[in-house]
Each structure stands twice: as structure tokens, then as C-alpha cells.
What does this fold into?
Amino acid sequence: MNSVQNGMIALARSTFVSRWMRRLGKRTALAKRFVGGTDLDRALGTAVNLFARYGIRASLFYLGEYVLERAAIEQNVSQALAAIDALTQAGLDIHVSIDPTAVGFMTSRDYGSANATRIAQHAARQPVVTGHERRVMLDMEDLSMRDRTCELHNALSEQDLPVALTLHARQRRTCDDLRRLVDLPTAVRLVKGAFPASPAHDFSGRAAIDEAYFEAARLMLSRQARDAGFYPAFGTHDDRLAVSIIELARRHGWAPEQFEFEMLYGVRTDWQLKLRSMGYRVRVYLPFGDDWWPYAARRVGEQPRNAWLLARSAIGNGYGFG
It folds into this structure.
């Protein structure tokens, strides 16, 4: 498993492979599985439909990870700003996800921080709508980006900007980070995590990772966290784990609207609808754009059984937009 995951992150970071995959066609079977739209208008239409029909919320993310070119970085930033405007006009949650490697951190820390601040400040200027969230969620990459992403979150929080942070349960330091965060009126998206670094940094094996996830959930759903105005977001498709989290939330007095479950667009839609029918908040991570390769490669790294879609992408381009 680890060899597949580590191999996929190397492919995700490869400029040559990314360009080659994009030349295969505008959108392949792998992209169709996980990408919500080729542009912002289509992604917004998907988000509006999900909320109107099912009450499912969305976090918009413009595809474009691990970029060095200044023009590509500026495009990523402008798309995030445009997504904030579009969500505001649609009356939806102002919730966008940004990847530090997409907004300039691959070039320099100062440039990346300045761009992330622009996005968070723009979100902060939007009106607050009762019943809706307003957050800029920082995605978390592999261990090499962890400190910089946490530092960025702290810097934006100190400016009272609506920022949130993604943490990987499989990393051993996550509970230590959470102990500092649950006293703050911030939000954390907890995911199991992919692309392990080493046994010194990561738990390994499903049982150990599940145990680490639930231990982190205990901190996020503590009475201390609730009293501080902390907002937990549980990024998992594991229904057994979600049921345990629901029981934990009940025991600690959390109402269903005080936390949420987040899943990838197009994955476990049956479970998304089940959770909604039970009264819980559900959000989908809704990527859009043409630069689908790094994102899709990560999905294979997290779940190697998706590799057959990758193979179909590599041998033909018969999967256009539909």
C-alpha cells in the first residue's frame, strides 16, 4: 500500500506526467469520477443543485496543485476569489478549499502567504448569512508542507480571518496539534490521510489509523472544544467510524448542526444521503477545472482500487465532457 501511495504522490508532482495526461483529452474517466465541473459555472450549478435538492453543502476547489509558474498561481488565486463571489451571489456557504502548493508556496513562503491572505480577506468581506458557513479551508499535503500550512493557519487566525485547517489522523503529531487548536474558535477538517512518510511520523495499518482518527475526534468533540466555538469537520467515507463519532457527539452534547461530515464529490453518495436523512450536516469536496491530474492521482494513492480508472485514462481519450 505505501509503495502505491508514495508512487502516486511522485506522479502527482511530475510536471511532465501532468502535461502528458492533459494531452490525452479534456477529461478522462478518472477525472469524471472525481471532478465536479470543468469551470466555475458548472461547479456552482452542481453546488446549487446539491443544496437545493438534498441540503448537501459544498467546498469549491479549483484544480491546480504543485505549481511553480507565476501565471498558473495567479490563475489559481483568481479562481478562488471568483468562487467566493459566486457562492455569495448564490446564497450558499462561502466555503472554498485552497492548497498551499497551488497559491505560491512552491515558489516562496512570503508569496504563498500573501496570496492566501488575499483569499481569506476577500471571504471575510462577504456578508454573513444565518445558517451558512464562511470559511477558507487550507488543504494539507504531505509531511513536507505540514509546518508551513499550520503556520499559515495560525497567521490568518491571528488576523481574525475565516480560516480552517485540514489535519491527517495518520500522522502521529495530529493530536498534539489539535490540543492547541480546540481552544480556539476555528475549524478543523480531519481526514485519515495518505502518502505516509515513515513509521516515525505515521501510524500504519487500518486499525491503528482508525484508532488515531477516533482519538483525534475525541479532542474535537470535547466539551472544551464546544465551549470555545471550535467547529469539527470529519472527512471520512467510513460509515462505521461516522456512527461512532455520532455517538460520541451525542454523549458530549453536540447538536447535529455544530459539526459536519465531509466526503469527496462522487463518492459514497448513498451514505451522504443517509446522513442527511438523519439530520447531520454533509459537505462534499467539489473540485473543478482542467488540471485534474494531480488531484486524481492523489485519489488513487488514497484508494489503489481506483487504479483501473487511471489505466483507462492512459490508454485512450474516449471520455469527453458529458
In short: The longest helix spans residues 70-90.
